[in-house]
Amino acid sequence: MGKVAYKRLKGSRHLRQRLVLATLAGTPVVVEDIRSEESSPGLRSYEVSLLRLLESISDDCLVEINETGTKLRYKPGVLMGGKRHVHDCGLSRSIGYFIEPLIILGLFGKKPLTIRLKGITNDSKDPSVDTFRTTTLHLLKRFGVPIGDGLDLKIERRGAPPLGGGDVLLQIPIVPSNLLAAHWIDEGMVKRIRGIAFSTKVSPQTVNSMIYAARGIFNSFIPDVHIFSDVRTNATGGSSPGYGISLVAETTTGCLISADMALSDRKTDEMEEEMDEKPNLIPPEELGVQAASMLLEEIEQGGVVDSTHQGLLFILCALCPPDISKVRVGKLTPYGIETLRNIRDFLGVKFDIKPDPNSGTVLLKCLGSGMKNLSRKVS
Q1: Contact 230/306 with Cβ under 8 angstroms?
Q2: If 94 and its partner were Cys, which of 120, 130, 131, 187 is the partner (CB 3.0–4.6 Å)?
Q3: How does pLDDT run across 182-215, given as a tens digit for each residue?
Q4: How many degrees, rounded to 5, is the angle at CA 321 between CA 316 and CA 322?
Q5: Is residue 70 a contact partner of residue 41, using CB atoms and an 8 Å limit?
Q6: Is the peptide bond before 176 cis (omega within 30 degrees of 0)?
């Protein structure tokens, strides 16, 4: 066997996305100087947890971390998928941090992926499991992944910070060969708003207050507003009290624009050091108003997806066959811009970017990399 050529990277910036793209491209990487200048150097516990998750769904995957955690050597294996996977996501980041890479990688596995994830379901940092269930999974439909055919996310237990206790079951089908290129530039007009307000181990009146406050904002613009309630006071409510709301606007062309907020009372030193996040005790009425305002801002920006889904949209476009994909988004986020750079470095795909001064949106088009599911089981 010849010597393995590793792609050398530096720093912890967007490590999760780099690992996902390295896995898809089959590119071994060495990441050095991971927070080497910080008072607490090295990989964080949630990043190590992600590496263990990648190991569990892959075969012949190699992960080596030095003693200080400032250097990582990662050689991707064959994506296996499979059933009966269970992963404890810990309490440093929510389950949403782990779902996005699983959605992308699960499509290119040898077998469909079924995995149970335990931890925090809703917090103020990562997209909630509700957003993934209502919006993200439907985004895959635009690229030829059939909705309902083994694609599902069940929230069996909710878990709020800081103790979590949530439990979700994620099912991802495999693509038979490759994805379909998307021509998706018409965002349409908003025709309805749906949502879900949840509470765990607090008064049921909390949910009613959030719904009433959010509807008070929306009713001035659109009559078709329905926000469901999910009150959990028993074991299905996890280990900590909390509440939050997830909202989705559906347009006349089938686009889904989402926004969510949740009470966050996490106080782990890792999170405070990483994100300067302080306990965020917002009254339910104010939280409902803030979430509704966030959704209106996302709608105002335009585009076929909200700012949270820009990175995933670009990666899916880059994984399409060698055909032109064209999409429209609102103002490019810093995460979206970094995603475009990582796609260029790992997949060799470059996007043509043209601002649309009339609408304030951005049109992007690319020629897909032709990623095929070579791991799938050949019958």
Answers
A1: no
A2: 120
A3: 999 999 999 999 999 999 999 999 999 999 999 9
A4: 120
A5: yes
A6: no
